[in-house]
Specification:
This is Beta-carotene 15,15'-monooxygenase. With 341 residues, this protein is mainly alpha-helical. It has helices at residues 2-11, 19-41, 46-57, 60-67, 70-78, 90-116, 119-129, 135-165, 169-172, 179-208, 212-219, 224-264, 287-293, 296-311, 314-317, 320-335; strands at 86-88, 175-178, 273-276, 281-284, 336-339.
């Protein structure tokens, strides 16, 4: 019966989700079930019974009139927008969400590592300046910590990208999702939206208060030796740690919810199967601009780090990021167009 049920779902997949169509589907389901049970009682095997039921009731065009949906079927046949759509099974949807969760965390943890990678160097640099350590130790620490941490981060980015590569079609192709699965995904998204909204809010708060430990420590009158550890070490470590943790939470929350949204585009409720036509993605108008913009954020990161380490003015150097964001928005607005697939 499971085979018959799946076949029935596919038969009605592209029909509008109306009371009339739902009634017809339930009637046909009962007819198929009765016929199947009748054949089993006659001694037919399950495969034989399924084959006979599908051959007798499997052509919707032939039985549409008896079900009272002849006009609806004709209209859909004249405008087969979903005829060549790629169908997502419940297993596909579940695996996509699982992979998206994993990829979001790996990507977020990679960014986290990039941000905290400088903490060992900052710590050792402060100790060298205070004559607690020799200068050569600073070089050793920089080479043995920053580059390996960045390497791990890059590996995480690559793994994250490879995990989601097989799901690119969800954004770029016309897809359909069965109504029951689509409803479950919407329910899960609504159930989790508040949780991830809180996680995102906590991340934003961490980023917003990252300056607070440094401000508090700078107002306390410590001894000279203690000040090395509070202002030169504890302050930047707290700053980087709060930013890193905040960004991690924001990326995870946004990534997970984006996965749900990508699938709920396929569950608008207009048809008996969730469905969507890709609205298009924004791409750069020419390849040269795209190649240049790939280097935009790495360049901004380099400028931020160089300026921050040269001046140690961490309290204002972070302004580079919102300014860079505004500049990128203006560039994208002028150089990008929406492309449909």
């Amino acid at each position: 019966m499971e085979t018959i049920k799946n076949y029935l779902d596919n038969m009605f997949a592209n029909l509008p989700h109306t009371d009339e169509v739902l009634k017809a589907k339930n009637e046909l389901s009962q007819m198929m079930e009765d016929k199947y049970n009748e054949l089993i009682e006659e001694g037919k095997t399950e495969n034989e019974a399924v084959g006979i039921v599908i051959s007798e009731f499997g052509n919707l065009n032939e039985i549409a009139d008896d079900l009272g949906i002849n006009e609806t079927v004709k209209q859909v046949n004249e405008n087969p927008v979903y005829a060549n759509a790629r169908k997502l099974t419940p297993v596909d949807a579940k695996q996509y969400l699982k992979d998206n969760h994993k990829a979001s965390f790996l990507r977020a943890f990679g960014v986290f590592l990039c941000i905290i990678a400088y903490i060992p160097a900052i710590t050792v640099s402060a100790l060298v300046d205070a004559d607690y350590l020799e200068e050569w130790i600073e070089d050793v620490v920089v080479v043995s910590t920053i580059f390996p941490i960045f390497l791990i981060a890059v590996i995480l980015f690559v793994v994250s990208s490879s995990i989601m590569k097989k799901w690119k079609f969800i954004k770029n192709e016309l897809c359909v999702l069965d109504y029951q699965t689509a409803s479950q995904i919407k329910f899960d998204m609504d159930s989790n939206s508040k949780v991830y909204a809180v996680i995102r809010a906590i991340g934003i708060v961490f980023c917003a208060i990252c300056w607070f430990p440094a401000a508090v420590l700078s107002e306390i009158d410590f001894d000279k030796d203690v000040r090395v550890f509070t202002e030169e070490i504890a302050s930047p470590v707290a700053l980087f740690s709060l930013i890193a943790l905040g960004v991690l939470l924001i990326i995870v929350a946004n990534g997970v919810m984006k996965g749900y949204k990508n699938l709920t585009k396929a569950s608008d409720g207009n048809t008996m199967v969730g469905s969507y036509v890709n609205e298009g993605v924004k791409v750069y108008k020419d390849q040269k601009t795209e190649d240049i913009m790939k280097l935009y954020w790495p360049t901004v990161t380099c400028i931020y780090l160089i300026e921050s380490f040269l001046t140690f003015n961490w309290g204002t150097s972070w302004l580079i990021w919102p300014i860079a964001g505004v500049i990128k928005y203006l560039i994208d607005t002028a150089t990008m167009e929406k492309k449909k697939f």
